[in-house]
Amino acid sequence: MRQKVALVTGSSRGIGAAIAAELARAGYAVCINCIERVDLAEALAAKLRAEGCTAMVHRADVSDREAVFAMVRHIEDTLGPVDLLVSNAGIAEQRQFQDIEPAFWQRLFDVNVNGGFHCAQAVLPHMLHEHAGCMIFVSSIWGRHGASCEVAYASTKHAIIGLSRSLAAELAPSGIRVNCVAPGVIDTDMVQVLGQETLDALARDVIPMERLGRPEEIAHAVRFLADEASYTTGQVLMCDGGFFI
Ligand code: NAD
Questions:
Q1: Cβ(12) to ligand 1 under 6 A?
Q2: Which of 40, 43, 175, 218 has its CA 20 to 30 A from that of 10?
Q3: What is the pLDDT of residues 167-218, one digit of tens each?
Q4: pLDDT tens across 163-181, in order?
Q5: Long-range CB pairs of 62-65, under 8 A, 24+ apart, other chains included
């Protein structure tokens, strides 16, 4: 039987890297994608190959539709058609609403939302043909709740949930499941901008489990949705240490 193929966008580091490693170790042939620091992606691929896993790297900006379709063609030629899409690539920046320029707003939507749209359309023909497949979108707790100074980011993460739930309804009769994970505060480069003092205070005073999440914990949730949750579609799995209960 053909090895299943997974594309994990934004997987050179952080949550995406943990997801790529988890899926590769679970038997998927994975494509590690990133926009920069290809060296990190290559190092992860080499580590996984040394463990006997199958991994390739493809640099592409997910907001660039042509580049996304070229990436999916490269994966098909190298590993085979994509069975599992994990749309994880994302960017974040805190700004007060009155300081948001249109270009900033546009870039967040181009990467966080349009990137997922391009990737989903690029992998869909094979999934429709097979009458099988799985897509998982990485949203955020800020896709379910409002956040001061995060209007642009939270709007994109709400949009991802809307995209994913509607797509789930449309694709369920075609045998394709679509779900979201919504991480809380996870210990990656993305949250370092908040500063250690704020992160410590969040863990101590706000998060009931009294700690930040680890990227591997989001990866476990993604693999559960991909491999175990066979009767689950259109759902948002909150992975936030009880931040919002
Ligand atoms: P990170 O900044 O550590 O890593 C981001 C990854 O995305 C990198 O590999 C980067 O190269 C890639 N990337 C960025 N822009 C890209 C683009 N245009 N095209 C292709 N790749 C691109 O981030 P992270 O903390 O690992 O976050 C991963 C995802 O999880 C994001 O969607 C983020 O919004 C979401 N998330 C993170 C947290 C958290 O606390 N860290 C919480 C909720 C949701």
A1: yes
A2: 175
A3: 999 999 999 999 999 999 999 999 999 999 999 999 999 999 999 999 999 9
A4: 999 999 999 999 999 999 9
A5: 62/9, 62/10, 62/33, 62/35, 62/87, 62/89, 62/111, 62/114, 62/115, 62/116, 62/118, 62/119, 63/107, 63/110, 63/111, 63/114, 63/115, 63/118, 64/118, 65/114, 65/118
